[in-house]
Amino acid sequence: MYPFAYTKPADTRAALAAGARGGRYIAGGTTLVDLMRETVERPGTLVDISGLPLRDVQAAARGGLRIGALARMSDVAAHPRVRTAYPVVSQALELSASAQLRNMATIGGNIMQRTRCTYFRDVTAACNKRQRGSGCAALEGYNRSHAILGTSEACVATHPSDLAVALAALDATVHLLGPDGERSLALAEFLLPPGDTPDREHDLRPGELITGVEIPPHPQSLRSGYLKVRDRQSYEFALTSAAVVLNITGDVIRDARVAAGGVGTVPWRLTAVERRLAGARPSDQLWAQAAAVAADGARALRHNGFKAELLKRTVERQLRAVGGTR
């Protein structure tokens, strides 16, 4: 680990000032500290924002739910409003990490966590995320865990967050605060696919920090759930996952939102699946037909071709779990 300075601002204004001077924000530290130990990240100054008043989980001004960026994963997963109205969020959080990590890690940090690609974490390997233009060792290396959707010639690393997949299916918004004031972005706009700039993972301006995540209002008839498929049931990242959100009234699917994890460079909305579901009547046949297009557009690498079929099966299983068997 390289030497660094440390400061813990007393309020939000002081934190923004320190961030504007180039400091890196840290709260739970469950990702950043690991990367610093491995010398992947080398911040000159850490700005500890854990004392800022950003922990509330409360009703949003326009309905829905607002979750403070510094709320702990375990607290959000256990929150009665989250468990009742948005079980997909509770389930994604509980499947994300060990209990010890969930007690430390924050919602904002979870969204901001960096890829688990082994080549990204190996400073001797070529990685365009660490140094743009250096190459991508995963393209020709061992790439079983890598992405099949949203990839580019510059990067094929998966986004690691389970929570972000659930939030993508719920059309969540990320609230930001920086030197130029407040702004909000849809999660789909905040998390950036690699393209030609894989080192730029978020639409985050210098000195900005996440203040919260907002889930828009949804009908009471909403059903949701999260399924994660992995090599082992203990702490492990997804090979595939599916967040399913269905509004079924009068035995008709009025709205369907499905997102996948473990297969995309960002949480991947399965719009082709959603189109098959909207306006249809739930049935086992429908779940199978919709899931059959889940991997449309996938581009497999040498070792991860199995993910396309696994994604279809994961989506079908979770559609049946959330929508019911008929």
From TrEMBL:
InterPro entries: CO_DH_flav_C, CO_DH_flav_C_dom_sf, Diverse_Substr_Oxidored, FAD-bd_PCMH, FAD-bd_PCMH-like_sf, FAD-bd_PCMH_sub1, FAD-bd_PCMH_sub2, Mopterin_DH_FAD-bd. Keywords: Oxidoreductase. PROSITE patterns: FAD_PCMH. Residues 1-220 form the FAD-binding PCMH-type domain. GO terms for molecular function: FAD binding; oxidoreductase activity. Gene3D superfamilies: 3.30.465.10, CO dehydrogenase flavoprotein, C-terminal domain, Uridine Diphospho-n-acetylenolpyruvylglucosamine Reductase, domain 2. SUPFAM superfamilies: CO dehydrogenase flavoprotein C-terminal domain-like (SSF55447), FAD-binding/transporter-associated domain-like (SSF56176). It holds the Pfam family FAD_binding_5. PANTHER family: OXIDOREDUCTASE (PTHR42659:SF1), XANTHINE DEHYDROGENASE SUBUNIT C-RELATED (PTHR42659). This is Xanthine dehydrogenase YagS FAD-binding subunit.
